[in-house]
Write a structure and sequence with these properties.
Elements (H helix, E strand, L loop, with lengths): L8 E3 L5 E3 L9 H13 L1 H4 L16 H6 L16 H7 L18 H13 L19 H8 L4 H37 L1
Antiparallel strand pairs: 1-2
């Protein structure tokens, strides 16, 4: 697999550059584990980017947004899983009106919920965002390392985004070429 250039490289036996994928214990808890889960399952409805919304007044695309919470409660109470509304709504039965993600959206899988619960519980109390550390530095238990191993690595996610962007550009280039060909044909007919 081709992976982003900023990652470390090793040469294989043919002299080709191969990208190294971070082991679960070497992934940053917030940037490499939590953020991809939120991007995949939460930010379409709770983010400010293009094509995103701010449902329930909740933004989950920043530390500040998680702390501020939405109309119901603080999404994140560092160090307190029971008081963090983002965890509470994940645990609700799927037919409950407050369950998140909503029924018609991709649901959180058990490893994702376990990782979010562990992360919230491992945070120091208070509103200051802690320094992002690897799962190993945070002494994550084996069950959390196993859960992280079930997620796509940051490198795999970056490669998937790059592939999607290339495919999008190809479609756009093909559409532009067709428009140009049609314009050329129309101009030839006008003469």
């Amino acid at each position: 697999k081709l992976l982003p250039e900023e990652e470390s490289e090793d040469e294989d036996k043919d002299g080709d550059q191969a990208k190294v994928i971070k082991a679960p214990e070497d992934r940053l808890a917030y940037a490499d584990v939590v953020v991809p889960i939120l991007e995949a399952k939460c930010l379409a409805c709770h983010g400010e980017g293009k094509d995103q919304k701010k449902k329930g007044g909740l933004l989950m695309d920043s530390w500040e947004g998680l702390l501020e919470g939405g109309e119901e409660a603080a999404a994140l109470v560092p160090g307190d899983v029971k008081e963090s509304f983002m965890i509470e709504v994940l645990r609700l039965p799927e037919d409950d009106d407050y369950h998140m993600p909503p029924k018609k959206k991709a649901q959180m899988e058990a490893p994702e919920i376990a990782l979010l619960e562990w992360w919230v519980g491992s945070l120091p109390k208070g509103n200051q965002q802690p320094k992002d550390q690897t799962l190993k530095e945070l002494n994550a238990p084996q069950s959390i390392l196993d859960a992280a191993a079930k997620l796509a690595s940051p490198e795999e996610l970056a490669a998937a985004r790059a592939t999607a962007e290339l495919a999008k550009r190809k479609v756009e280039d093909e559409a532009a070429a067709k428009r140009k060909a049609i314009e050329g044909a129309l101009n030839a007919l006008k003469q």
